[in-house]
Structure formats: C-alpha cells, structure tokens
Amino acid sequence: MDLQDLKIFQIVAQEQSISKAAQKLNYVQSNVTNRIKQLEKELHTTLFYRHSRGVQITSAGKTLLSYTEKILHMLDETIKAVRNETSIVTGSLSLGSTESTAAVRLPPVLTQYCQTYPQVDCSLETASSTALVEHVFNYKLDGAFVPDPIQHPDLSTIPIWHEELVVVSHLSETDPISLLQQKPILVFGVGCAYRARLEKWLHEAGIIPKLFREFSSIDTILGCIQAGLGIGITTRSILEKYQQYSPDALLYPHSLPPSFAQVCISFIHRHDVFMSKALHAFIQLIKKQDQLQ
Length: 293
Description:
Elements: H1 3-15, H2 18-25, H3 29-43, E1 48-51, E2 54-57, H4 59-83, E3 91-97, H5 99-104, H6 106-116, E4 120-126, H7 129-137, E5 143-147, E6 155-170, H8 176-182, E7 185-187, H9 193-205, E8 212-214, H10 218-226, E9 231-235, H11 236-245, E10 251-255, H12 258-261, E11 262-270, H13 277-286, H14 289-292
Parallel strand pairs: 3-4, 3-5, 7-8, 7-9
Antiparallel strand pairs: 1-2, 5-11, 6-9, 6-10, 6-11
C-alpha cells in the first residue's frame, strides 16, 4: 500500500464513481480501477460495492477512509512544518466564506494579502455556513469566515466584522409583515445562517410564511426581488453594494429586531493543528481590519 493508492481511494470515495474520480485525477479509468482492485487484494476485503450508477463504500471502506484522511492530513502537516522552517511566507492557504462576506468584505483583504505574500497559493471557496464549518472541521479548509455563534472545542473563533440583517422588498412594498405572509421568501438553501435567523424570528413572532424559494446567488435573489417575485433577507452592506453598482435598483430594506439583526462575522480555524506561516500571516492581517477599512 502506498500513499498514491490511498489518495486514489479517497477521491473514489468522495466522488462515488470510478469514472468521475479518474476525470478528477486526470487518470485513465482502467488505471483507477486496477489501483482499487490492488488495494482490495492487499487488504483482503471489498472497499466498494459496484453498481450501474457508480460505487458505494462498504463498512471496511469507511474504516479505511477514516484512517486515510488522518494519514494524508498528517502528511500535509509534515510538509507544512518542514516548509515553515524558511523565513519566507510560502505554501498554500485554503479559505472559505459565505457569498455575502466574500462579495463585500474580502476583496480588499485578499488583495492586500496576495500582494504582501505573492508566494502563497491562496484560494477561496464560497458555501453555506454549515458547509464551511464542516470543511474546516474536516481539514478541507484552513479557515473560514462564518456568522456567529460557532461553538466547538476544536475550533478557534476570531470576531472580525459586525453586520446588520435586513428584510429586502421592492421599493413600492412597505409592510414587511404582510409581505412575509403573502409573498415567497427568496433564500439560500438549508445551511445558510441568515435563513436560519429569519426562520427563528418568524417562528417566535408567530408569522407563517407563504413559502421559501431557494437560489444559489445573492445577485439572483436581489434581481428577482426587484422584479416582484418575492422578498428576501441579506446584510445591509451587501444591499448597499448592490445599489451602488445598480443605482436604478428599486429595493427597500426593512429592519429586524436587534436581537436577530445584529450578526458578528468571525474567522474560524482549527487550533489543534500545525499553523503554517501562511495562515498565521493571514490571521494577523484580518485582526487589523480597522486599519484596512
């Protein structure tokens, strides 16, 4: 068994398909198939059930996957530790953020970081708050910007920005309560922290919404609100930026009760792993946000 076999096995498990794994790895499919078969022969067990739609990991495969992720993570930590001996800030930095924070807050931060540390390979993934926390916890991201509250013994939380949530409607619509009961609410999918806050407020206020329509882009949501499709929830900062670039946008923000409206955006990262110079430099930069605004 070698490390490359484990990496191939991990990708097949993630993709649940040998053909998709081969595409992702840029390998010939027969090569991936043979490596999995060799691994199964070496371990004297079946790692995947094969079916017409792909593969399904077995119980033994799940056990191997758990150890594989630990082994590959330890290898990555070893490489980072050795590279960290140099005084130059290099390596990779994988970050995550919700779409609204990425659009409004991160551009100047990432620009300054990449200009200051050009030898760092910095990447950014946008996803829901729930997915971002999971990715940091599972070592897929070095850190992520997510709305509070985040409470986990393995995660460190650094408060960075304060945001205000608002309900957004067409400019001609002024009664938010009746709108919430009469019009569809345009939101991101389950896992969005802002949607969860809105649903909690609706429940506590005894407001029964008409229905939720899910979208994957804040620009699409705001565009549909302007077209009269429904109402939505976002931060005041993202709405102001949208109106800045679309001055003709006929959108109106309705305030929420302070206990639901006020949100702190924090940067989370695992505190039980080796901190690379790239991550340490980024954390020092975001702690100086008052100087960046």
